[in-house]
Design a protein that fits this description.
The structure is a single chain. The chain is an alpha/beta fold and 134 residues long. It contains five helices and seven strands; from the N terminus they run βααββββαββαα. The strands form two sheets. The chain has a five-stranded mixed sheet with strand order 2-3-4-5-6, with helices on both faces. The chain has a two-stranded parallel sheet with strand order 1-7. β2 and β3 form a beta hairpin. The two termini are 26 Å apart.
Length: 134
Amino acid sequence: MNSDLTPKLLLAEESDWDPSRFKSLLEASVRAIDRSSVDWDSGAGEEWARVVVGTQVAALLWSRVPFAFTGLKYAKALVPVMASYAVQCEVLADWDAVEFVVDLSVVESIAGRCVASAFDSRGFSANDLWWATI
């Protein structure tokens, strides 16, 4: 059965998130994992940042709201960081596993645009959501 991200995204959307805290969250995430870095082109309007270790993704963080996906391998280091910033965090083992569902209207509200044609909200992976809303 797929996990419904709607409750976490609603909590994230309803939070008192200050986007200026996002850079601080990224810095704290990188400090938590040796040899990690941030992959984010904010100048190009990217709404998600990735914390990477070499070629491995450790986390995907949505700049619009306090929501993140964290890889299982890095959860021990990153979940406490996410909690300290009140980020709704979903831990996963496989970035491409189709294991999530969501109310599409919530994603579109957060993204500020229609994404219905970009992914199937009835079954998607973390990477699918990232690509649809980046």
